[in-house]
Amino acid sequence: MSVMPQPIHEQQHWHDLPQWRQLLFWWQRQPAQRLQQLYNELQHQLRENGATFDPWHQQQRQLDLMPWLISETQWQQLEAGIAQRHQLLNAILHDLYGPQQLLQQQIIPPDVIFLNKDYLLPCSGLLDTATWLPMLATDIGRNSNGQFCAYSDNTQLPAGLGYVLEHRLAFNNTTTELNSEVKKSQLAGFFRQMQQLLQHGHGNGSEHKLAGLLTHNQRDAAYFEHAFLANYLDIALVQGADLMFKDSRLWLKTLSGLQPLQSLLRYLPDNSCDPLELEPGSSGSAGLLQSIRQKQLLCVNPPGSALLDSGALLPFLAQCCEFLLQQPLLLPTVPALWCGNASQLAQIQSDSHNYCLQHLLSAQQWQLAGLTATEQTALWQQVARQPAAYIARQLLPLSQLPCCDKNGELQPRSGALRVFSLLTDRDVGQAEVTVMPGALGRVSTDSHKLQHADRAGFSAGFTAKDVWVLANKAQAVSLLKSAKHQVTLSRQSGLLPSRVADHLFWLGRYNERLNLICRALRAALTLLNNNNTGDNTRQDARCLLSFCLHANSSSDDSAGYALPGLQPALDQLFSADNPTGVVGIMKNLLYNAQSVREYFGEDTWYVLDKLQNAIYRWPTQPQWQQPATLLRTLDEIVLLQTAIYGLNNETMSRTQTLRFMDLGQHLERAQQSCSLLQAVFANTPPTDELMEALLRLADTLMTYRRRYHTELHPLAIMDLLLLDDSTPRSVSYQCARLLRQTEKLPALHNDNKLSREQRLAMELVTLLQQIDLQQLFDAQQHALPGLSLQLHQLQQTLRQLSDSVTLSYFNHADLSSQWQSF
Amino acid sequence: MKYQLIHQTEYRYAQPVANSYNLAWLTPRQLPYQQVEYSSVSVNPAPSLIQQRSDSFGNTQHFIHVQPPHKQLSVTSRSTLQVMPRHNVLKIRDATDSSGLFAHLRQHTDAITLDALLCQHASRMIPLLPAAKSVIMPLMQPGQNILQLAQALNQLIFTEFKYDPEFSTVVTPLSEVLAHKRGVCQDFAQLAISCLRSVGIPARYVSGYLQTRPPEGQPRLVGADASHAWFAVFEPTLGWIDFDPTNNILADEQHLTLAWGRDYADVVPLKGILHGNGGHQLSVAVDVVPLAE
After folding, report:
1. Angle at Cα A93 formed by Cα A90 and Cα A97, nearest 5°?
2. How far is A212 from chain B (nearest CA, A)?
3. What mean pLDDT do residues A276-283 have?
């Protein structure tokens, strides 16, 4: 039984480096307090810090203040090794999804491929001449000889690219004086190369075409990375629902119609990319494979590449290299064995604590050292049933690096690198590799954990290191910032997908709905809170509660306002499970916000986070007799959701983005105000208390008092809240705003005619202008049936406007329907 | 025997559907024992794209995209083909036994053997169930070759399993078929494949049609035929030999071959996908008309 060799110290490679001496010198000059402060600043630079949406989500990625240094000579060696490995893996995919010479010539046992869940038959012949593997992320650690050694390949979800960028920017912003002292290679060139690759696509057609980053529906740390990367590369961040196949290619559904997509940076698992040809019911886009096949889409990377990630090829890589490239493998690869070979299986079993076992059919993996004797026996029995479906790779000792803890002290940790490379077609059959001069460094106290192949991306948190590839002065001129500047000019990331517009519209509507319901509820509870809770007061409160109950139900308001009992009404509104209650609205608001989170600034996230927290602390048994707690809750919600308006006005730079939210907000306000006026005036004549509550609710009590002193006249109130377009809460004000906004919506037709949305908004304004209030009230200031009719007509038209916006702008992004197989 | 073949599939949707995407394996294969003289696939309403390619098994696959909103979609394949007798009955006794087969599979990795190796393992629709293994184990006898074993299995499925079109659908799992001893041709083919693979014998799924003969004195009914399926076993020197467990025969002149794969999922005659919530109705009409030569 061999014993795991002691890990080497990375520092021993640094001793002769002047940059290391500079770094140490700088370090020793910093007081402990300053180091702590820098450490905290670095963490704060990571985007998801302070903006976590999920209250249970703990920020888990940390950035080490001490960078990982790699000397120029060591790097050149590693770079050459990666370049060869990338060419090799590309050639392997070409062969396995093509002529299969590697199988026919017995270099790879067929079972290793045929028993592999990542070998996808529909991908056979997907790319005949073009590059199979445009991007590769290789995991690297030191082996027992102290050499850099590759132990895992990531092609399906090459996570970490955005992190590398983020870490470098964080360092640039935090330790400015250190950056100017230590000369290192810059990353911008690599990302520019990546942009060029995506912009060029397959190089067919000169028209302006788009690139996109295909991400998933969950809002997790990986999504953050995707949003960050898409923004930096200036490509559209898209989901499967944003895409559609037509005329041999994929198109992005945007507010201004379908836009052809020429390349896709794919961050969905292989099998989930195409529900027609791959896993049915998955979230990708039907036709994705077909558009790759017809060379209309450059996919980075094409589905099928995950075969490399499975680790199945590791035992055979050296022979593959000799066979396909007629060269010896430059970069050492982790020793790996195939259980289908009896002697190799015996070798693994005799030295099991040094191996990680992988099942090719399920992608499960086991660190054998971590298993009990019984578990191992059970596992070996399982392997014996089909040994050909298992491979084992040796665990590397990795190297130890000095890492800075949060107190500014240096501690040794094991570390591994993830290096990124691109393969671009120069000429036909002439592909060239570009290796990013930097890497994602990860450190841990547990060297085995670092080597656990995390195929779905980094699910657990980790401590990261910025990796500095040292350079002589001549090279170290390019700056990230200049690259960033160049990027923003084309503004592809500003293109608004229809799905996003849909979510923003509804975000606006729900936010406003929440505001009005909370205000009405607050008014009702305040009425009840007064000592005088006679029949009239209860009646008034019931009237407001009835408005609240209707506000979020889809039923037609013409059904009339049946007045419920106080307690049942409150129970319904406060029930956390009732989809039409206050919590229901908050959930809808958060769902829509969550679906477009990349459009908000961090401060907005902070507010949304608090709103989410309010749901978890929701009062369970509302008692109208003790309204104080309920009032506090409502106050808090109104405060938070009002902040959303303000923040978004500040941070949302994209005009159309804001326009759809604004449309939603004002359409909702107009709609609900009509409904509220109907509830208060249309039935029995309102009491003075109710009218005062109404004015307070609409923030117009002061305005009213200034104009009319103390007397409360239904007609005057109606004028203020319905017709006066200088009152920001009046229906008239909303309709004027709707008209302005509909004029600025993207034109869908090339004629000069008014859009349907414009015509409806005009109709609203005209309807209001034609209202003569004197005609709608009798001499005793009691409402006549005409009032109700007018309000009803307004609501009807508002509903038509909402439907029309949906039909014109969101419809091709039908959110409610799923891919359906038949 | 020469045939004219018409296979029409029609979908009716509850609500208009824009953008339906389909894959079809509806074009008969060109084979030593099957000459395809003519073959076409037509779609109504007119597709905005219909693209043909050869899949990894060499079957012809069509990608079909129908874009404008439609409430009805029909896909029709028409072919004229000549099917020759295969005389496989006579070859059965020449087959190797399982140890000969396994030795071949261990030593050879030519393209033909690779095809067999691909069909030696469980696949998406064909798990290797212990219950399937216990169906085939009692049939194994000393001195028996692999095709004799396949023939015994063919017979056992024919006699012990009841043909029941009401029982199963295209997604009925094999375990259900085994538990109730009922199913249709597709289930029987996949069951046989599961049994054979569970003892290491490569077997594949074949999709096609069977010429039906009307009862004596009655005319052929138009559209009364149906899709058919059977299985094939790999024999190193004889190649793939096709068995039809639904009829307890070897596939021959009455069997028209469309496509083959690991299981039904690899060669569904027509499958589609659309964005929408409404339901749909499906009707299929198949005509296998023998032509006078």
Report:
1. 150
2. 22
3. 87
